[in-house]
Each structure stands twice: as structure tokens, then as C-alpha cells.
User: Fold this.
Amino acid sequence: MHVVVITKATPDDNATVRVDPQGVVTWGDKLVLNPWDEYAVTEAVLLQERYGARTTVLTLGNEAHDEALKKSLAIGIQQAARIWDPALEKHDSLQHSQAMAAAIRKLGDVDLVLFGKEFTDTANDQHIYMLGRQLGWNVVGSMLKLLQVDPTAGTLRLERMLEQGIQTVSTRLPAVVSLFDDINEPRYPSFVNIRKASRAAISIWDAAELDLALEPPAVEVLEYLNLPERVGNVEMIEGDTPSAKAQALVQKLMEAKLL
Amino acid sequence: MSTVWVWLEHSDGKLVQSAREALAAAQALGSQVVGIIAAGTPELVEALAVRAGQFGAQAIIATADPTLESYRFEPHVALLRALVDAEQPAALLAGHTLRGREVLSGLAGSLGVGALTDCLSLEWSEERLVAVRPAYDGKVLCRAVLRRGTVQLATLRESAFTAQPVPDAPSPPLQWAEAALAEDAIATKVEAFAASSAEVDLTSARVIVAGGRGVGGPEGFGPLEELASVLGGAVGASRAAVDAGWIPYAHQIGQTGKDVSPELYFAVGISGAIQHVSGMRSARTIVAINKDPNAPIFEMASYGLQGDLHELIPAITQALRAQLADR
Assistant:
């Protein structure tokens, strides 16, 4: 069984992201492994341990993404490939899915593709479901728990999240599966593995190598905007006692027709 | 004349709130609003069609088939693909729910077109849809346009659009369509469904009472629950309170939690860290309650109460009960 996890490098969780006066998005320094992808990488490593699966991590991006790829290798993924072509500089989710579909066809024997919940930088998960249709594979989103994989029979059983409850579903491999939130305890690389991964070779595939015919992006970001400053004119509710303040607040909410 | 379709998600025999909101968004964009209903039985379709008419659907295209009874990605995407190919609408909208985003993204991938997801606003610009939507985990926004594709696809942030009941709307005409996939062509099978007992429906809640580190412990959430229940709202939490184990993850608002846009938001014992604020700043009205007068949350609130939340919250609940009893 060959499991592919598709990751991205994104600004750190705790980074302050701002749009500068030139309209450029800034976040301090480097890129790290997209936080949601840590769970997907861990899930792939668990499959490697439990079922002897082979594992590959794929990323679309320039060399700034190498460190995050090496983190996935240090956590235990066996090989890494980075897809990059200057024509993909301003890629959208559709192009991402087309490039990944080409890379998966190139790998040839992939049974299962795993994704974290979303890419935090584009704040998008549509590339996941687009890839499913680009490949024509079965798709299950928001996995809460992987119940069973049978590589011989080519079947997969899992629990998935919906707003109204939890579905237990079975499907056939090959399949594309996204993870819901934090479904496992993410693995962290050991120092020894970090050193080993730092010397690992990462394959780099361009559009020609993937036989990828690129159309212009379908979605174009026209501009980035800082969040609107919320009105700074808070009205402090005063009163001699908690009960007086509470009544004053309720009065205000009534007047504003909020109740 | 532009025809805008809305994928009408439903649950338990009712349209979900985000579907009613999407109908309102479609009315603002299109001269003809068509609801798309996929359900297990014709009886359910007909009941949903009447409701859709009351929220702005002028016509319905519907499929009733047992393959569409429990949600699965493949049959819904294949059906929409067949309908879009046949009818060529200008746009198709859905709520940005787990199902809505899967189905519209899958349709986009199937058609080889783009989609705008989690839209906070949506408008036409030279016959292309332009949206304001989040980027960088909601820490900034972006304005994005759909450049290509005949049908334009968008999912809408829950509560960002306001559902508009249409009084005395006639029942919309129904056009029936066949399912696109037969059961034996669908590999995915639903074995079981366990409805969540204590559903935490934060994203569609009109009122949210959220607690942070200042709440002090798991027992501190009791009074917040009482206040929420008087207001018919839901209880939320900051990451600090969830990480401390005081309340389950399902309640978390902000980065690595849910993004919400309620009409009224109580931030109780929440300092206002950017990680929390990114998930709730689009709330219409914010009431901040904190003992620290310099807490950043006051800067973004409409109303502020400085003091001990353990005294203030029960007092507000009591004042509300008295007020609501007078009505």
C-alpha cells in the first residue's frame, strides 16, 4: 500500500500576519509545516507502522518549502517530492489539484491520499475535493477515526464528521481522505531523525516532467486587506453594583433591539 | 438575465440555516433564483421546496432518489455536474458547511473551474463574481475574482448573509431530474449515523456566550451556559479554556477552532488575543466582560463591563429573565 500525504509550508500559528502599505502580506520570518498537516503526516506514519505502507510526502512550492518537507521526513515519511515551476507562482486551488493529480499519476501506484483539514495561508480546502474529481477517486472528508484499511481487498472504513453527527462509512481504494481537526497526537521528530532528514534528497518535478498543461489560474487574488479595525468607541457600562451594571446592559441591548 | 442556483442543504427534514442565507445572497445577485434539492424521497423534496419558496427560491430543480438519502460526496457531485451541464446557470451558491464546501469544490474540480469559498461578501464585477474572504487563517482578508469558468461557484460563511423570509411567496414550480449515479456505481457506503446528542452549533448560533481563562475552571462555565440558554444561544470558549481541559474542543472559537459571526457575542474573561479575535471579530455586537480594564478585548467591543465575571454573569442572567418575563 502506498500512502501519499500532501502538505504545504505556511506561516507559523503564532505569527502576526499583516498587509503592508504596498499590499504585500508579511508575517515575520520563515514558513513551517502547515499546522493541520502535522496530523496527516502522523496518520500516514501510523499506517506505515501498522500496515507496512510506503509513504510519500508531496508539496507544491519553491525551495522555501524544503524545511517543512524535511520535517515530514524526520517524523517518519519515507520519501519527499516537491513540485515547482515558475508558471505555478500564483497558482490557485484548481491548479494545485491538477499538479497533484499529475504527480500522483507519475508515482503510479498510490492507494490513499491524506490531507490535513486545510491550508492556513490560502484558508482553503477546496484543492482536496478538486483532486478527488481530477483523479476520479472516491472522496471522504473530515475523517475523525480510521477504523480499518484492507490493502488486499482495497477497502477502507472510517468515521467522518458532519455538523449533525458522525457517519461511519466504507469505501474503496484508491481514495482521497481529509482529516477533521486534530484526530491524533502529532509526532515530533527526534534530534537524530532531524539530522538524518536534513541530508535527505528531495525530488523536484516541474510542469514538463509532470506533463502538466497549465491554463491561467481560475481564481485571482486582487488584493489583500487588513481586517477592518473595529470601532474603538466601547461604551463602558457603569453601575454601583453588579446587579445595577447588569440591568444597565440589558437596557442597552433592548434599545439596540438585540434581544 | 442571470440565473443563480442555490444548493439547498437540509437536515432532519429542514433546510439548514446556511441554505436560507444562501437564498438571500442569491436574490441579491440574480434575477432568477433556483433552488437545487437532492433528497431521498419526493415527499421530503416537496416539503423542502415550499420552505425554499418562503426564503426566496422562485423555482426548484429536484431529484428524489434513495442514493441521495444519506450524504455522500460522489452522488451529489455527479448530480450537480449533470444539472450544470444541462442548464448552464450563471452561478451556484451553497453554505460553507462541511457538506457545502465538499460538494461545490468537487463540482469545481469535475468541471475544471474555480470556486470562491467561505465568502464574507459577494458581488458581480463585469459578470464575474468577486468575494471578500479570509486568508492566512483569517488574520487578513483578500478580495478574489473568478476569472474562468462558465458557472461561477461560491460557498458563503455562515451568518455572514441574513436570511430574508418572503411573505406570501407562491410555492415554487418543481422540475424533476434523474439521479446521475446508480447505487452500484457508488463505492462509498454509509454504514451508520450517530446524531450528536449535545450539538454545539456555534457557526449558526445567533448569540454566543464565550468564556476564556478568566472563567477560572470547568465549573465556571455553568453560569455561562445558563446565560446562553436564557438567550437561546450557544457556549463558546477561547483556546486557553479548551487547552486547560475546562470545556471540550467543539466549543473552541478562533484559530484552530471555529470562525463565527453571531449577532451578539459575549466575551467573558477573554483577554482578546489575536488567535481568538480572528475567529469572532465579524460578530455584529460584542459585549466584553473582564476584570482587567486594559484587556484588548474592550477595544473591539460595543459594550464593556469591568468587574468580577462571577458576579456579573449571574446578575445579567437574572436581569434578562426579569426583562423577558415582562414581555
Notes: The radius of gyration of chain B is 21 Å. The longest helix of chain B spans residues 309-326. Residues 27 and 34 of chain B are 10 Å apart (CA to CA).
